[in-house]
Amino acid sequence: MTDVLDKVAGKSGELVLRRAGDDFEVIANGVFLMDTRNGESERLLVSVAADLVPGKARMLIGGLGVGYSLRAALDHPGVGEVVVVEREPAVIGWNREGPLRDVHDDALSDERVTVVEADLVKWLRRTEERFDALCLDIDNGPEWTVTDGNSKLYRDEGLDMLAERLRPGGVLGVWSAESVPSFRKRLRARFGEVRELKIPVPQGEPDVLWFARV
């Protein structure tokens, strides 16, 4: 049985937060987006990226989600500062003072965290900030984006923009719910070092993580 906890008009359509037993689910325009059932691959996205960067990393997380990635970043000894870019104010609210707050032990209150309410693509175009690690988890994958505008990030021009926001030796991490060979090929054409991890899930195809170093 599922209970709808909140329903709002988001930046790109309807957003619904609902409870299913002990877990929470986020639905965007009637399509399942994320839940709190596992989160292993979301945590690995940031922990592996942090492992690949020496020293105290300055990390950018694209997409707050249910806070799993942020919590993993704060718990990693190699992360010193985290900037989270999230365009949906409702998602920020659910995580800051809503029911998702307990999922990540109130990670947004940590002094090392800065939350930016903005569209990631637009923000990247105008910012001059640079990071040791940039972890991208705003879609279900390069070919399964929440909005059409996000697809630009996974093309050659988007990869160029992401690379420009990395410091020398920096790492780009990308989360996907499916394998996308064409995207892997674009990564290898743009970055000097690319690593792919497949994370088994209870049902369906494994989640896929890519890590690329400039």
In whole angstroms, the N-to-C terminal distance is 46 Å
**What is the overall number of helices?**
6
Structural class: alpha/beta
> Helices and strands, in N-to-C order?
EEEEHEHEHEHEHEHEE
The biggest sheet amounts to: 7 strands, mixed
Overall geometry comes to globular
For the CA atoms, what is the radius of gyration? 16 Å
Spatial sequence of strands, sheet with the most strands:
7-6-5-8-9-11-10
Mean model confidence by pLDDT: 94
Percent helix, as a range, is 25-40%
**Total beta strand runs:** 11
Q: Which consecutive residue ranges, at least 5 long each, have pLDDT under 50? A: none
Beta percentage is: 35-45%
Short description:
With 214 residues, the chain is α/β, with parallel strands linked by helices. 25% of the residues lie in helices and 36% in strands.
Describe the protein's architecture and organization.
- The protein is α/β, with parallel strands linked by helices.
- The chain has helices at residues 40-51, 68-75, 89-96, 120-126, 156-164, 181-190, and strands at residues 2-10, 13-20, 23-28, 31-35, 57-62, 79-86, 113-117, 131-136, 166-176, 193-199, 207-213.
- A 7-stranded mixed β-sheet has the order 7-6-5-8-9-11-10, with helices on both faces. Strands 1-2-3-4 form a 4-stranded antiparallel β-sheet, with helices on one face.
- Helix 1 (40-51) runs parallel beside helix 2 (68-75).
- The chain is globular and about 50 Å long.
- The N and C termini lie far apart (46 Å).
- The model has no long low-confidence stretch (mean pLDDT 94).
- This is Spermidine synthase.
- It holds the Pfam family Spermine_synth.
- Keywords: Polyamine biosynthesis.
